[in-house]
Design a protein that fits this description.
Helix content is 13%, strand content 52%. An 8-stranded antiparallel β-barrel has the order 1-3-4-5-6-7-8-9. It is mainly beta. The protein has 2 helices and 9 strands, in the order ααβββββββββ. The longest helix is centred in the N-terminal third of the chain and has 12 residues.
Length: 138
């Protein structure tokens, strides 16, 4: 009986059959944005992102819903992941999707997309959001 209880708990913790999708679930905050490979080399560079008044925050929920805050704007929609992460949103009845290559570096999530018009590859380097410490030491 104890074995069955443990099995039920394990099954309910996992959101999908895909371990890679499970590792994406959570809240991610961008630490930097790296642009490379641009045909106009002056567009290449790295921007460190500080989360003061605005952030780049990506929330991937187990339900398949997502929200993505980009500075002062945000979008919501659905997501799925296979070889790439796909974020889709409904724009007045038209489903628009954006795809990203997925990579992990230690605990960081790296999402990269390329622009065929500029030749640029934009990579968002996200870290898992850490809950604020609300305890006070006296």
């Amino acid at each position: 009986m104890l074995f069955l209880s443990g099995l039920v708990i394990l099954i309910s913790i996992s959101c999908s059959e895909d371990d890679r999708s499970d590792s994406l679930i959570g809240t991610w905050v961008a630490e930097s944005i790296v642009v490379t490979g641009c045909s106009d080399e002056s567009r290449n560079g790295t921007e460190l992102v500080e989360c003061n008044d605005s952030c780049y925050r990506l929330v991937l929920e187990c339900s398949g819903d997502y929200s993505f805050q980009r500075e002062f704007s945000s979008e919501v929609g659905t997501w799925d992941a296979g070889d790439r992460l796909r974020l889709c949103q409904d724009e007045e009845g038209e489903i628009l999707c954006e795809e990203f290559n997925i990579d992990f570096a230690q605990i960081n999530l790296i999402l990269s997309s390329d622009s065929t018009s500029s030749g640029c590859v934009t990579s968002f380097i996200f870290a898992p959001e850490v809950a604020a410490d609300t305890t006070q030491t006296q």
